Amino acid sequence: MKKRIKKGLRANKPRQWFAIAAAVFCLIFSACFMTEPGTEAVEPGTNAAEPETEQGEETESRESQKKNISLERETRLLVESYVTDVLRCIEDGNMRTFRPQEFATINGYLVAASMIDDRVTLEEQQGTGLLTPRITVGLLDCQEQEDGTILAGAEGNIFYSDGHFNHQIVHRYTVTLAQSEGEWHCVDIDARDDEKVLALKEKIAGMTYEEQIAYVEKELQSGTDAEDTSLSIRQAIFNYAETTFDSVNESRTAECSPEDYETANGYLAAKYYQTLQEYYIEKGYPIKDHRVLGVRLKTVSPMESKAGGERLFAVASVQCSYTEPGLQTLQNYYRETEVILEKAGDSEYRVVEFNSIGAAAYELKEALRAVPDREEKNRYIDAHIKEAVINDGLLPMDNK
User: Quick check: 271 and 197 in contact, CB under 8 A?
Assistant: First the structure.
C-alpha cells in the first residue's frame, strides 16, 4: 500500500522542463503589459500625425459633398423657377406685354420673343387658338466656372392643346447664375438648340443693344407688309381689343359706356358685341369665357393727323376664343380689324380708333360721318346697333 502511494505522488510531480517553460511564458506575458502602444520611433522625414491628417481630410471631403449637394439643390430650384418665368411669356395674359427691358441681356429677350413668334405661327397654321400651355422645367447639369459663376443646363417642356390634340415642345437652355450678397441669382438664359435664336445671334453680333432689339423685332415679324412691326404696336392693339371684346363677357355688359372710348367708332365696336351678348343672356345661354388670344399685323402705314403728332393706320388680325352659347365647346375666330394708333412715347403707341364689325355695322359707321356731335353719334349708335347686328346675320329677324 505504501509503495502505491509513493508511486502516485511521483507521477503528479511536474517535470523540470515544464517548470522552466512556464517561468519563461510568465516573464514574456509580464513584459507585454509593461510596454505602451504607439511609442515606435519616428524616422526623420516622416509625419507622425499622418493618421490624424487622413481623418481630417475625410471629414473635409464629407463637408464638401454636403455643400455641393446643397448648392445643386439651390441651383435646381433657381433655374427651374427662372426658366419657367421666361417661358410664361407665351401664356395668353402675357403675350405682347413683355418688354426687352425685362431681360438683363439680349439672350433672354431672344428666347422669349422666339417663343411668342412660335406660338403665333402655330395658331395661324392650325387656324385655332392654343389653350393655355403647361410648362415644366428640369435641371440637366450644373458646373462652377473659374470666375465664380455657375452654368446650368435646363430642359423646358411646353405642353399645349389646340382644342383637338395635345402637343409638346422641348427646348434646352443654358442658364448663368452669379452670387450677390451671399445669395445666388439667375442672370442670363441662352438657347442651346433653338435654330432660329442661334441664327439671329450670329446676325446681330457686333450691333448695339438698341440695334439688336430692332432687328429681332423685325425678323420675328416676317411675312407682314408693315415697315414698323414693333411689339409695342401689337401690345397696344391687344390691350385695346381686350377692353373692347370684354363687353361680350356677361359680367361686363352693363359697363359698356361711350365714355370708355375715345371715338364713336370704338364705342360702336364694343356696343356691337354687347348687343349680341345681351340677346344670348335673354335666351338663357350667354357667351362665356370670351378672350383675346393674340394679334397678327397685316399692314402698317403712316397717316396724316390734323391734330398733329405721329399716327399709324394698321390692319390686324385679332384672334379670340369663346365658349359657344348652349354648348361646352371652345370656339376660335379671327376678326380683321382696322386700327388707328398714335405715338405716345419713344416706342409706345396707343389706340385712338378701333373698328371690328360686320358689313351692316360698317355701313352704320359710315352713316356716323354725317353726324357732327359726339353725343348725337352715341345716341345714333344706341338706336341702330341692334338692326346692324340682325342684318349681319348674328341675330334672328324676329328680334327687331
Answer: no
With the C-alpha atoms ordered 212, 216, 218, 219, is the resulting torsion angle positive or negative?
positive
- Strand partners of residue 296: 317
pLDDT tens digit sequence for 125-184: 555 566 678 899 999 888 888 888 999 999 999 888 765 567 788 999 999 999 888 888
Grid coordinates representing 391?
342684318
State the sign of the Cα–Cα–Cα–Cα dihedral 243, 246, 248, 251: negative
Residues 236 and 198 in one domain: no
Helix (H, G, I), strand (E, B) or coil at 324: coil
User: At 124, phi and psi to the nearest 5?
Assistant: -70, -40
The DSSP element (H or E) to which 331 belongs, if any, is strand 330-343
Alpha helices, DSSP H only, in the chain?
2-12, 16-34, 50-87, 106-126, 195-204, 209-219, 231-245, 264-283, 359-367, 374-391
Q: Which residues pair with 295 in a beta bridge?
A: 318
Give the predicted TM-score (pTM) of the model.
0.44
Q: Is 199 domain-assigned?
A: yes
CA distance 63 to 56: 11
Residue 246 pLDDT class (50, 70, 90 cuts): low
Q: Determine the Cα–Cα distance for residues 355 and 268; give it in Å rounded to an integer.
A: 8
What CATH code is carried by the domain that includes residue 154? Answer: 3.10.450
What is the rounded CA–CA span in Å between residue 283 and residue 372? 37
Question: What cell does 185 get?
Answer: 441669382
CA 186 to chain centre: 14
